[in-house]
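Fold it.
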Amino acid sequence: MKQVLEFLGFIALVQGALGLVHEFTDWHVGFVQRIGFLDGYEIYASIALVVLAFALFAAAESVGRPG
């Protein structure tokens, strides 16, 4: 379970970072800008993905601890 949470956290972190890179540099990378209903909210979605990544990493650490 810990490895699954870490993997999902890594994917969320990468996609959030790529979404921010896309917004600030106009490189066409990442998945966030390709989702139609997020038009105009790409920065917020990317920041939410980065925050979600850190929450998933914290949950993975919590699962790994005894007790």
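The two ends are 16 Å apart (CA to CA).
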